[in-house]
């Protein structure tokens, strides 16, 4: 028992020394430190043994940092703001932006022009492709052409040196304030080695703005030469 009290006294002094080292405020005196004992009784013995299990101080530890004995990592918060661009830099950036704008506008203009040309070529009633389709349809359905070439009849443009068939050749010109267009293309049928040359001319109608055929002729490449008149409005 005396040994336990002696050990508690040493523990109290050590704890008080530690509290002084870490600068802890104690709301109570050292006498407030009281041990908590746990009693264990052996069933086969008359003696009671006391063992010190913990030490209750009744205080709350308050940490106070005076900058001694501790490592502090300084955190710097920079209030430095980036410098504003100079007048020369602003002018240079404005020049770049203007150049990009010009490039974008040129690209849009070129794209718009290409779309307009494609639309006029494919969907306009006055385009050479549209007039070629109308002329070929009249040739393909004509009885004399069917009898001479056989079915099916197909049309194509000029043939290049590499054997590729190009677009239908056409010529546009003005006469008496009106637009004219001449077409030339070729047709073939099931008859081997027989080919025909189609020549047509159309004139713009001033009231409707559409082209109307003046004539459509089919020249058969035979000897003697033979011509089939599909339409003649001259």
TrEMBL record:
The chain crosses the membrane at residues 98-119. Pfam families: TIM21. GO terms for biological process: protein import into mitochondrial matrix. Keywords: Membrane, Mitochondrion, Mitochondrion inner membrane, Protein transport, Transit peptide, Translocation, Transmembrane, Transmembrane helix, Transport. One of its GO terms (cellular component) is TIM23 mitochondrial import inner membrane translocase complex. It is found in: Mitochondrion inner membrane; Mitochondrion membrane. It is a single-pass membrane protein. Belongs to the TIM21 family. Essential component of the TIM23 complex, a complex that mediates the translocation of transit peptide-containing proteins across the mitochondrial inner membrane. Component of the TIM23 complex. This is Mitochondrial import inner membrane translocase subunit Tim21. It comes from Sinocyclocheilus rhinocerous. The gene is LOC107741989.
């Amino acid at each position: 028992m005396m040994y336990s009290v002696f050990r508690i006294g040493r523990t109290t002094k050590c704890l008080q020394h530690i509290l002084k080292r870490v600068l802890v405020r104690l709301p109570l005196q050292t006498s407030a430190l009281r041990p908590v004992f746990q009693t264990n009784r052996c069933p086969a013995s008359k003696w009671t043994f006391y063992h010190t299990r913990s030490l209750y101080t009744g205080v709350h530890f308050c940490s106070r940092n005076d900058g001694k004995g501790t490592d502090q990592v300084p955190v710097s918060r920079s209030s430095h703001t980036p410098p504003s661009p100079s007048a020369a830099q602003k002018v240079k950036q404005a020049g770049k932006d203007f150049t990009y704008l010009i490039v974008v506008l040129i690209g849009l203009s070129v794209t718009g022009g290409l779309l307009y040309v494609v639309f006029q070529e494919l969907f306009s009633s006055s385009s050479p492709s549209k007039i070629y389709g109308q002329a070929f349809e009249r040739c393909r359905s004509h009885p004399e052409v069917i009898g001479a070439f056989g079915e099916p009849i197909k049309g194509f443009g000029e043939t290049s040196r590499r054997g590729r068939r190009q677009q239908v050749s056409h010529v546009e010109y003005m006469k008496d304030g009106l637009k004219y267009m001449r077409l030339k293309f070729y047709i073939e049928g099931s008859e081997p080695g027989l080919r025909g040359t189609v020549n047509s001319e159309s004139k713009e109608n001033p009231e409707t703005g559409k082209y109307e055929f003046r004539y459509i002729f089919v020249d058969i490449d035979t000897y003697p030469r033979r011509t089939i008149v599909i339409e003649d409005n001259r």
